[in-house]
Amino acid sequence: MDTVWIAMIPAILAATWRMATPLIYAAVGEVITERAGVLNIGLEGTMLLGAFTAFAAVYATDNLWVGLLATLLVGVVVGLVFAFFTVTVKANQIIVGVALNLLGLGLTGFLFRTLFLGTKNAVRTVPVLNIPVLSDLPVVGEMLFHQNLMVYGTLLLVPVASFVLYKTAFGLAIRSVGEHPRASDTVGISVSGIRYAAVMIGTALTAIAGAFLTIAHTNQFVEGITSGRGFIALAVVVFGRWSPKGAFWASLLFGVFFALQLRLQAMPDLAIPYQAFQVLPYAATIVVLLSLRGRSHAPSALAIPYEA
Amino acid sequence: MSDSRSDILALAEERKALSVEAPASGLRRRWQVLLWSTLGPIAAILAAFVVSGLMLLVAGFDPLFAFATLLRGAFGDLRVISEVLLQATPLMLIGVGLAVAFRSNIWNIGAEGQFYAGAVLSTIAGIYLGMLPAVVLVPLVLVLGFVGGALWGVLAGWFKVRFGASEIVTTIMLNYVAIIGTGYLVTGPMIEQAGTYPQTAKVAEAARLYRFLPPTRLHIGFLLALVFAVIVYVLLFKTSTGYAIRAAGHNQTAARYAGIDVERTVLLAMGISGGAAGLAGAIQVSGLTFRLYQQISPGYGFTGIAVALLAGNHPLGVILSALLFGALRSGSEVMQISAKIPSVLVFVVQGLVILSVVSYGVYQMKLFGRLRVAKEG
Amino acid sequence: MSDDVILRMENMVKTFPGVVANAGINLEVRRGEIHCLLGENGAGKTVLMSTLYGLYHADAGSIIYKGQPVQIRSPKDAIRQRIGMVHQHFMLVPTLTVAENLILGQYRYWQRLSQMERAKAEIRRLGEEFGLRIDPDAVVGRLSVGEQQRVEILKALYHGIDLLILDEPTAVLTPQETSQLLGFLRELADKGLTIIFITHKLEEVMQVSDRVTVLRDGKDVATLNTAETSPRELARLMVGRDVLMEMPERQGEPGEVVLAVQDLCVENERGLRVVDGVSFEVREREIVGIAGVAGNGQSELALALAGLMPIHSGEVRLNGQVLREWTPRQVSQLGLAHVPEDRHGMAIILPFSVSNNFVIHSFGDEPFSRHGFLNFSRIREYAQRLVREYDVRLVSVDDPISSLSGGNQQKVVVARELNREPRLLLVNQPTRGIDIGATEFVRQRILAQRDRGSAVLLISTELEEIFHLSDRILVMYEGKIVGEVPPDRSLLDKIGLMMAGHRAEA
Fold first, then answer.
1. What is the pLDDT of residues B14-57, one digit of tens each?
2. C96, A175: Cβ pair inside 8 Å?
3. How many CA atoms lie within 13 A of B34 on its CB side?
4. C109–A186 C-beta distance less than 8 A
5. Which of the given ranges, A271-275, B28-32, B233-237, has the highest pLDDT on average?
6. What are the tens digits of pLDDT across the range C90-146?
């Protein structure tokens, strides 16, 4: 029994980063959105739309690039719609987010059942980059040097997002719009423009997170495949204190729970019912939120529509 | 609202006395308000149908045929109508409860989980306390359903009050916990004797609700839901407790200033909305399914959000919007069978209804702002 | 148009739903002058200048700037026209540094912030040139209010301007800081900058301006050379009648101690000690005024006394009772009534009807509630009685309170609080943002309440109000009470020094 456990550690570590990947894409995107003062709780629906789009596009063309491009496009369109209702119409962001989740669930379910039900529906997946020798290292080898390209993509995403947010005029504008939109307005920054952009970046990355689930992590679409990751990403943003780096590490923490869930469920003859593991990421999310205890670094203007 | 903006508003208010517009009479204004607040939801529904019709067209279906089937599935004959009422029952209860939560500015997205919590507790009673007479057992089952849902709701409320954890995220996470927990019960300790399907045994005869319109399945749960809506209406608008809930929802700081225990109102609102969802779960088990299984709710908790919002979070309005969404659900099942259109489409319609309602709400606020100013004269 | 006119605004009209804010205003400003815009709250000063700065779009009227008709659609246009504005509420992002705030909006979005160093050097140079020394790397949120205002002016200068608008810039300053600012503005004007200075304070107009335009009810009533006018004339123009606010003499001497505060400390959410060892007493039939520049702990003191902020240490005795864990309910049962500073945020519930707002504290008690059910007719009768008594102007008590003017909303709050026959009346900024008529009324009521035997604690940043109403004045600075003075106008200078942190000599 002990040896089985020890043998599992590398696999769990490897799964941790892999399971954290969709959270990282979505949470980093949401960090950018929220730093501009917009709360998008429609990540779950966005992720589903991304997952379905990537799957359908790769299914149709057998080309991963087309899949990713289509996903980005859908992500941007979703962002456009969300921003239209929250920034232009100035509707309550939480309610619009709820609607977006329902739309994502309904649209993907509807399209999947009309287009794909009963077909053999496995698609090509993002290739794994196996770095020889290094990937054979004990314990960490598999985790660090034997992952698919989208997992490695997070190593690019986080510094780029940090750079944009902290080192460019655009990032400065995002941060100022989320803290004090009126001040930004008076120096000629378009609050709406920045918020549209930040929302669309957020939904595009969230859609990519969805794509990861259907064309990298697995090779098919299942209704509700995101299983709450969009909501967990919201908690990741809080736990990561609204910074891309924070979101990365917080995602890894949640990745551990997903990895444990995955591995422990697969363990044969374990006396514990599998639901106990299934529930892990969700229970962990609650525990993490409770542990934060009012320590909040939320942008001041978060979820408040700007009235010019 | 930014500071300068409020300055301007304050200024605008100062100047109202100078406004020259003729005052509208109180009665006329009341009619205007009623008219505009009824037109809105109707327009919202129409908009949702137009958009989803277009979607059907694009997907290669005949939307007119689809909607005709949907209508037939909703209002065809007595049996069909009774099915609509059955579908409307849990939606009504959940919608009424959510109206309370939303009015106190708490975003309870967890009605789904609270529904399960109620269903679980009432099933346990219905199965294991079957020796009790119906007069005792039926109320007990319903009360336990309410209690189960209320506890699940209050838990999230406590997380918010005590730890400052956003109820949006915690209620959603508690949904997963409740559904997975139910999965455990119906595959493990509570699985039926035969053990073929992941479901519990049937609840005792004495735990079942009276079906008053045979041969339809319509049970007194529907009437209970109506009564519940009226009770909550009275609670919200006619009692001091309701005053406190609404005050805290509109302006937490002012409520605190007024000596209202805001933490208590949060717990209370979560208790009522969770309890309502739990009661819905209990009624579903004791009136319709007679047993518990993992998919006992096809997303009632989420549809309930649309139900409450469409009704403007008014308990009596919820009665109507629950009937509408009940018809939609019931009709979509028929549509799925005879027009081969996946019933998940209702989620799309719900999403669209919410978007239309919320946009109209913004517009309406502007409109009423003007009406009010005109009245000031 | 003569050469020396830099700006001419003609027949400016701006309406908000149901309200005419600017009803055809004409304004002419000369190059290099300091031009005051004088008017009461709601006269239309800020709206006119916000229109010039592109924050609002005029319904009618034309702007001629530097001899050219111009369209200013956004602040961006204004900045391009070399117009700068220092707003009453600072337009600074508190989480960013001084330098970041200054360069905000100055670069194209895709540009890197690598020019930051150059910007910092420029900030230091400007600071040297104008005597506004500020560390460019300081986080704005940690600067004092006076420093933040300097950052605002620096920001305008950094953008490069010919015309600077200042909206009530002295509201947040001590008298000393004010005279410093005014002197500095004079220097800027001497260097050729044109300055428009919005204010409702007559002394400032007399002290700083070359010319003054008086606004009333959305119209310009006169433009005068400051040297040729008097405060009295300006006051008459501003209000439209002679102002005479005689307050009645106090009747009776102070009685028993109602509120005794001993070494009170309050910490804010960030753990900063905002009220730091404050001790004082308030007696029956006495108004104690707390003076001070905004943000020196007065608000927190009031909130702590009202049970809305936790007391960190010290003792508060109300009516002889000591309470550690105050709740607003307990405090009000001990006889405290509270007219809070933030009317919209705290004192009323905007969507609720006027009558419901009258019972905000007592809705759950007899006779407004019986067995948990609200008694609407009792609530309505009660509201109607107070509405008559306090002369609240409204159509029906069933209408939402948001439909009332600010002055009438404040009357509702004052009526509600005074009618509770408080032992201690806590009033914070009771006349902010309301017109002269309502101000007068509210002040009379506060005095009357004192004469009926209540103890009154008055907090105000308007020195004029403090002098007008108080029997004793305490000055607060950085969370401490730095001295006590009698309400003698000859002590204005002394109070000014105290407000800037100089302790009173014993």
1. 333 333 333 344 566 667 767 777 777 788 888 888 888 888 88
2. yes
3. 6
4. no
5. B233-237
6. 899 999 999 999 999 887 777 777 777 888 888 888 888 877 778 899 999 888 778
The reply to whether A241 touches chain C by the CB within 8 Å rule is: no
How far C81 CA lies from chain A's nearest CA (Å)?
Answer: 12
Tell me the C-alpha distance between C463 and C80, whole Å: 39
* A137 pLDDT tier (thresholds 50, 70, 90): confident
The answer to whether B247 contacts C348, with C-beta atoms less than 8 Å apart, is no
Contact at CB, C93 and A184, closer than 8 angstroms: yes
Report angle CA A26, A28, A33 to the nearest 5 degrees: 90
In Å, how far is A99's CA from the nearest CA of chain B?
4
Counting every residue written for chain B, the total comes to: 377
Same domain assignment for residues C235 and C269: no
The token pair that represents C440 in the structure block: 């007068």
Condensed to tens digits (0 to 9), the pLDDT of residues C200-213 reads 888 889 999 999 99
Q: How many structural domains does chain C have? A: 2
Note which residues in 412-451 of chain C have CB less than 8 A from chain B: 433-435
Nearest residue to C334 via CA among C259, C262, C280: C259
Domain that holds residue C387: 258-499
CATH number at residue A159: 1.10.3470
Closest CA to C310 of C323, C329, C325: C325
In total, chain C counts a number of residues equal to 506
Round to whole Å and give the CA distance between C204 and A276: 72
- Output the pTM of the full model: 0.87
Does residue A303 lie in a domain region?
no
Asked if residue C379 is part of any domain, the answer here is yes
Measured between alpha carbons, how far is A93 from A97 in angstroms, rounded to an integer? 6
Bin C453: left if φ > 0, else alpha if -120 < ψ < 50, else beta: left
Query: In the predicted model, what is the mean pLDDT of chain C?
Result: 88
Q: Do C349 and B6 touch (CB under 8 A)?
A: no
Residue from B235, B243, B256, B367 to probe the interface with C (highest C Cβ count within 10 Å): B243
Asked if the structure places residue A307 within a domain, the reply is: no
pLDDT on residue C408: 87
Which residues does C38 contact at the CB level (< 8 Å), separation at least 6?
A: C45, C199, C200, C202, C205, C212, C213, C214, C215, C234, C237, C238
Residues in B touching A89 (Cβ below 8 Å): 359, 362
Q: Does A298 touch chain C (CB under 8 A)?
A: no
CA distance C241 to chain A (A): 36
pLDDT of residue C395: 85
Q: For residue C40, give every residue at least 6 positions away whose Cβ sits within 8 Å of its Cβ, in sequence order, or none.
A: C200, C216, C238, C239, C435, C436
Phi (first) and psi of residue A48, to 5 degrees: -60, -45
Q: What is the mean predicted confidence (pLDDT) over B164-184? A: 94
**Residue C382 phi, psi (nearest 5):** -60, -45
Q: For B318-368, what is each residue's pLDDT tens digit?
A: 999 999 999 988 888 888 888 888 888 889 988 998 998 888 877 766 655
In a domain, C225, yes or no: yes
Listed as ranges, residues in chain C with pLDDT below 70 are 1-3, 17-19, 241-251, 502-506
pLDDT score, position B376: 28
Domain count, chain A: 1
How far is Cα C123 from Cα C136, in angstroms, rounded to an integer? 7
- Domain spans in chain B, listed from the N-terminal domain onward: 90-321
* Global ipTM: 0.90
In a domain, C504, yes or no: no
Q: Are C345 and B6 in contact (CB under 8 A)?
A: no
Domain end (from C172, C204, C239): C239
Phi, psi at residue B311, to the nearest 5°? -85, 5
* Residue A299 falls inside a structural domain: no
**Cα C46 to Cα C215, C218, C344, C430, distances in angstroms:** 11, 11, 20, 22
